[in-house]
Amino acid sequence: MPANNATSNPWLDGPRSYGRISRVLHWAMALLFFWQFMGMIVKIAFGLNPRDSWIIHTHPEVGFILMVLMVVRALWAFCNMRRRPSHGTGFIARCAIFGHFGLYVLMLLVPLTALVRAWANGRGFAFLHAIPIVSPGQARPEILHFINITRESTGMSVHGLLGWMLLLLIVGHITMVIVHQWIWRDATLNKMLGTPR
């Protein structure tokens, strides 16, 4: 009897745990987000710029990779929607669904706002300085003003503000995993480790 999924295909999601593809996407993105936020914390704490630190210098490229992975992950989640483990019912389940939806939306909006900013300021963006994603061109001050509209009150652009909101949601997500796994002991983490019980 398969230990992982009712479909017996370890690559696909099942009612008891996520399949290999979902798990690889989840943990790869978790590591890349850790890299991104550590870079921004280092930048703020030590007043560094991309020329001073490789971890900060890689921020645009890693952000673009995260956006691509996010699109792949969203499509894969949609394809596996009927097979995936259930969030359950009740208030906690609804909070989990809402929290995951918020994570998905922000994981897409954060890099998108960076690309819009690169387009609006005319700089453009080339992945690894070789593959053009947004072509440089004429600056669009009115769009750039909108992207930076929060800077006067918060000291950061929309991209930065959404980024820190995403970090708060990620911290909340991790907190709830800890609660599920070690306080409620319902083995929620095991679903993403591929070791259901």
Q: How would you summarize what this structure contains?
A:
With 197 residues, this protein is mostly helical. It is built from eight helices and two strands, in the order ααααββαααα. It holds the Pfam family Ni_hydr_CYTB.
Protein described:
The chain crosses the membrane at residues 24-42, 62-79, 91-116, 161-183. It comes from Lampropedia aestuarii. The protein is mainly alpha-helical and 197 residues long. It has one domain (20-193): Fumarate Reductase Cytochrome B subunit (Up-down Bundle). It is 63% helix and 4% strand. It has 8 helices and 2 strands; from the N terminus they run ααααββαααα. It has helices spanning 20-46, 54-57, 59-79, 91-120, 141-147, 151-154, 158-183, 188-193; strands at residues 125-127, 131-134. Strands 1-2 form a two-stranded antiparallel ribbon. β1 (125-127) and β2 (131-134) form a beta hairpin. α4 (91-120) runs antiparallel to α5. It is elongated and about 55 Å long. The chain starts with 19 loop residues before the first helix and ends with a helix. The relative contact order is 0.12. The mean pLDDT is 91.
